[in-house]
Design goal:
heterodimer; A: 110 residues; mainly beta; 5-stranded mixed sheet; 4-stranded antiparallel sheet; B: 113 residues; 7-stranded mixed sheet; 11 strands; 0% helix
């Protein structure tokens, strides 16, 4: 599975959009981009995933560049409860495990 | 919603004890996983199972065993707990086919004294 690069930390003001970047320049054609988050002392929570089209659900939007070498997770109106570590992972569909890196620690401030 | 539950949120055991960590999922998922998470080391895969009675070693299986007698239940066993097995243990499940998940349980924080 391809590796990902994320900034170690980011801040965001409450109510503003949080844009979390991820680089995955070695991604293969059959690898999906997944995003998870982990709030302190809890299990990782699935957020969203995509292959090449942009995706949106009730939690977030995922924007994948046309060359698929990077993506951005967007939390449209960040709240204090969105403070967490966010993980970007790329993997082949059906692959039997997820490889988590260090992620980005997002702090939402009042 | 997918639900993955783990038997305990916090557990304290003594060195040498046999420890059972239970995980149950309610979405008829074929795949189930056990990870441990330690500061600075991230999540590491211990074992996974893609079917009842089937198991595969992950990256760090030493000192652990697993049991999957029913599709919904995946147990992690520490045959003789040691202090270096103090960690957060996370269970997850996913469908065999399809791209969603895996979905994680809340975790069990195990302390071995």
């Amino acid at each position: 599975d391809a590796k990902t690069t994320q900034p170690p930390s980011m801040d965001c003001a409450e109510g503003r959009a949080a844009n979390l970047p991820c680089n995955h320049s070695t991604i293969s054609g059959n690898e999906y981009v997944y995003w998870y988050r982990q709030i302190h002392s809890q299990g990782p929570q699935y957020i969203i995933h995509g292959l090449k089209n942009n995706e949106t659900n009730e939690m977030a939007s995922l924007i994948i560049t046309e060359d698929r070498k990077s993506s951005t997770l967007i939390l449209p109106h960040a709240t204090l409860r969105d403070t967490a570590v966010y993980y970007c992972i790329v993997r082949v569909s059906g692959n039997n495990d997820m490889r988590f890196g260090a992620g980005t620690r997002l702090t939402v401030k009042p | 919603d997918v639900k993955v539950t783990q038997s305990s949120r916090y557990l304290v055991k003594r060195t040498g004890e046999k420890v059972f960590l239970e995980c149950v999922q309610d979405m008829d998922h074929e795949n189930m996983f056990w990870y441990r998470q330690d500061p600075g080391l991230g999540l590491r895969l211990i074992y996974f199972s893609y079917d009842v009675k089937m198991k595969e070693k992950g990256d760090i299986p030493e000192g652990y065993s697993v049991s999957r007698e029913k599709k919904e239940r995946f147990s992690l066993i520490l045959e003789s707990a040691s202090t270096n097995q103090t960690s957060m243990y996370l269970c997850a499940s996913s469908l065999e086919k399809g791209t969603g998940g895996p979905f994680f349980g809340p975790g069990t924080r195990l302390t071995v004294l």
